[in-house]
Amino acid sequence: MEKIEDYINKVGYSERNPDTAIEPRLSLQWFLKMQHFADIALPPVMNDELKFYPAKYKNTYKNWLENIQDWCISRQLWWGHRIPAYYYNENDDYVVAENAEKALELAREKSGNANLQASDLRQDEDALDTWFSSWLWPISLFDGINNPGNEEINYYYPTSDLVTGPDIIFFWVARMIMAGEEYIGKFPFKNVYFTGIVRDKLGRKMSKSLGNSPDPIELIEKFGADGVRMGMMLSAPAGNDILFDEALCEQGRNFNNKIWNAFRLVKGWKVADIDQAEAGKIATKWFEAKLKQTNAEVNDLFKKYRISEALMAVYKLFWDEFSSWYLEMVKPAYINGEPQPIDKQTYDKTLEFFETLLKMLHPFMPFITEELWQHLYDRKDGESIMRVSLQLPDPTKADDELTAQIENVKQIVSGVRMVRNQKNIAPKEQLDLQVVGKNNYAEFDAVTIKMANLKGINVVAEKDATASAFMVGTDEFAVPVGDMIDVEAEIAKMEAQLQHLEGFLAGVKKKLSNERFVANAPEAVVALERKKQSDSEEKIAALKESISALKNK
């Protein structure tokens, strides 16, 4: 001993008993050499024979395996698999064997003492590390350790996909790959999809010890199982952490309500054997094409393991396209407060679309989709949405052209609605729509008239003087508002807009009149300022024309 001195050390304390200090204690441990396992498990991932989604986690995997250390596999616990080491004398000489019987044979052979008995052996009291059991899980699940090559393991191993969290890439994923290659000669899976880690608002990982994890049962009682599930998935892109907020679950619950209300609406319609309305013909043809497009998009996203984006695509399809547009296109009218029947052809197609949407939603929202699927048609005992397949053909060029045209029709409808909002015209007030020059969407007039609540659509050479105009692409549309507006209020509003634009134009002109700016500024910047000038002058001219027309009315 050369010297003794005091030094300051950080002393850890138990998280369960804050008054108890954690003291280091030297003890014998069992280790497993890992370099061989790292050598066989690194290449397949780096060469994409076994794929990670998202691929950024390959770097984490590589870092672990290139800096591999021997694995301490013993734990001082009173539960778990015992270390298979058996001591046979007072010197703690030992043998390692599968069981006590084989250990006795090895001990007799190693010690040269043929009189050794089982009672002379003492098994090591340590238990194996939890992950030592877990790395064998894909194999032991089908009894592949005790009964190698049995029928079940030959059928199920290897599987296709593993879904797990990125925090156990090394502890579990890497080690399962190691064990699979070492003991079976095959990797246990072909793809690994890493979910995000759910964290609290402070960014802390949720855990029992921190007490920061919400009670899932309470969440389910409040928002429904599908609401919780769907809200979490919408906000969980692969590998990205989620800062948990109940608002996510509320969004999921609201979507469940939307689906349920759409179902009640459709099932509440009266059906009659009448001719199919023109709007119904257009709507069913369009939505069939839209279903094909979205299904192809979702299939592509599934292949890329972009699960949250796939859900968002179906979410938008149901909420926006089906509920907000399709159902409004085909919804029967009310006459004198009485709902009119829908034609059977359109109704049957609507139920067919609803069933397809439920199939698309089922992987994300299994409970509500099963319930509504059972009530959509009469089902036989034992039938389930889980057992039906979803097969739609790929969209054709004609489908793509139709959906593109309907998008423009929707813009026309939105333009009319914008005029209503700007002029404070009630939605029930029927309007006329003027098309300046040529109506390129005449074949869809039935839908436009119904959705925008129009008296009719007229092609004109020049729009009405009092009309409010809007553009869809290069096509100009106008809504004559006549006596439906407060002329003085409208003129005052336009004059305020005119004053603002003239002030803006003056500022642009001042900048462009500065020779130094024009000479030194990048060409793109100067071009942008000139475009601002041109656009402002056009808007000012249009406003002056409209103000003049209103004053002379």
CA-based gyration radius: 36 Å
Strand composition percent: 5-15%
3D shape:
elongated
Which runs of at least 5 residues are low in confidence (pLDDT < 50)? none
Output mean pLDDT: 91
Q: State the total count of DSSP E strands.
A: 22
Query: What oligomeric state do these chains adopt?
Result: single chain
| Count of helical stretches | 19
Tell me the span between the first and last alpha carbons.
Answer: 111 Å
- How much helix is in the residues? 40-55%
Structural class: alpha/beta
Write structural notes for this entry.
The chain is of the alpha/beta class. 50% of the residues lie in helices and 12% in strands. The chain has 19 helices and 22 strands. It has a four-stranded mixed beta sheet with strand order 20-19-22-21, covered by helices on one side. The protein has a three-stranded parallel beta sheet with strand order 4-12-11, with helices on one face. A hairpin with a 2-residue loop joins strand 16 (334-335) and strand 17 (338-339). The model has no long low-confidence stretch (mean pLDDT 91).
Short recap of the structure:
By secondary structure, the protein is an alpha/beta fold. Helices cover 50% and strands 12% of the residues.
SSE map:
Elements: E1 12-13, E2 21-22, E3 31-32, H1 35-46, E4 51-53, H2 57-66, E5 71-72, E6 74-75, E7 85-87, E8 94-96, H3 100-111, E9 122-123, E10 127-128, H4 130-134, H5 137-140, H6 151-156, E11 161-164, H7 169-183, E12 191-194, E13 198-199, H8 216-223, H9 225-234, E14 242-243, H10 246-267, E15 271-272, H11 278-303, H12 307-330, E16 334-335, E17 338-339, E18 342-343, H13 344-361, H14 366-376, H15 397-423, E19 431-436, H16 445-452, E20 454-460, E21 467-472, E22 475-480, H17 487-512, H18 515-520, H19 523-551
Parallel strand pairs: 4-12, 11-12, 13-14, 15-18, 19-20
Antiparallel strand pairs: 1-2, 3-5, 6-10, 7-8, 7-9, 16-17, 19-22, 21-22
